[in-house]
Amino acid sequence: MSAATEPVSGAQYEIAAHGYRAVVASVGASLRVLEFEGRDLVVPFDADEVRPGYRGTTLAPWPNRIVDGRYAFAGVEHQLPLTEPGRGQALHGLLSWADFRPQVVEADRVVLVAVIQPQDGYPFRVEVSSEYAVDADGLQQTVTARNLGADAAPWGTGPHPYLVAGDGRVDDWTFALPASEVLTVTPDRLSPGAVEPVTDHPEWDFRAAREIGEVFIDHAFTSLDRAGGITEVRLTAADGTGVAMRWDEACPWVQVHTADTGIDATHRIGLAVEPMTCPPDAFNSGVDLIVLEPGASHAASWRIAAL
């Protein structure tokens, strides 16, 4: 396929098994479609469409925001491009618009790879592998980073799917999130504030499943309960259909966003659930920041399944 005929979102990789069907677009290694027996589990987008925001993309080498795009690492100050200009922040890493190349393409599994090249603000060379695989338990994505450079590199990752429970919108769905702490943010720029108990913010306490209603959420949660080492988030519709997301200790944080766009076609049509290896602005706070030594690798994974 020539560049002139390739879809806007890049090469398309369809994988399927056990009633699950996923389509991954090479631009951003983005999860473009995920269905179970024909039912959407994530908000999809068209192959020949510029991906709306960060829908389904792979976040690397950091998830969420770096405040002012500035940070210091190993005694050196760095300035990143401000990719969220309205808030003056560096948002969601450096690979969301990179075209990943295929490494493995199978009927039920695809592995796409891109390399972050040394650049202003992030002078490190890191290879990033994004693997998607479907089986009887749903879709699993695994992101693996390998430091190809001579210097240690700061690292964090996560996904950006907008989950769909069934009919209706976010307001109509019941949400269960086993998190006892929430990271507060400033109202104007969503810069991180303090980690506080959800008991101090009952509007964000979903430890007991309840309807989301009109509450606005664009916050990171932590102190996650785990059963057998696994955290599970559940989103269900009134008719009993739903979707679950599960991950292990590699992601001690999760960002949740109710997709308040103000545009009817996209307003609160899916709930972003983003397991993260570190919180927002970890390049500055150092909280749960991964430091990749030369030659070292790090992997994190998460799973989406139908209910």
Could you provide a short overview of the structure?
The protein contains one helix and 27 strands. The protein has 307 residues and is mostly beta strands.
Derived from helix and strand composition plus strand pairing, the structural class reads mainly beta
So what's the overall shape?
A: globular
Report the order of strands and helices. EEEEEEEEEEEEEEEEEEEEEEEEEHEE
Count of alpha/pi helices: 1
Shape-level CATH architecture: Distorted Sandwich
Query: Would you state the CATH class?
Result: Mainly Beta
Helix content: under 10%
Please mark out the parts with pLDDT under 50 across 5 or more consecutive residues, or reply none. Answer: none
CATH topology: Beta-galactosidase, Chain A, domain 5
Strand ordering within the main sheet: 10-11-12-13-27-23-22-17-20
Strand count, sense and barrel status of the largest sheet are: 9 strands, antiparallel
SS strand fraction: 35-45%
Kindly state the number of beta strands. Answer: 27
Number of domains: 1
Question: Roughly what is the average pLDDT, rounded to an integer?
Answer: 97
Alpha-carbon distance between the two ends: 37 Å
What integer value in Å does the Rg equal?
Answer: 18 Å
Strands, helices and their partners?
Layout (H helix, E strand, L loop, with lengths): L11 E6 L2 E6 L4 E7 L2 E2 L17 E2 L5 E3 L2 E4 L2 E4 L9 E3 L9 E5 L3 E8 L9 E10 L2 E10 L5 E3 L2 E2 L2 E2 L10 E3 L2 E7 L6 E6 L12 E2 L6 E7 L6 E6 L5 E6 L5 E5 L13 E6 L5 H4 L4 E3 L4 E10 L1
Antiparallel strand pairs: 1-2, 2-3, 3-4, 5-15, 6-9, 7-8, 10-11, 11-12, 12-13, 13-27, 14-26, 16-25, 17-20, 17-22, 18-19, 18-21, 21-24, 22-23, 23-27, 24-25
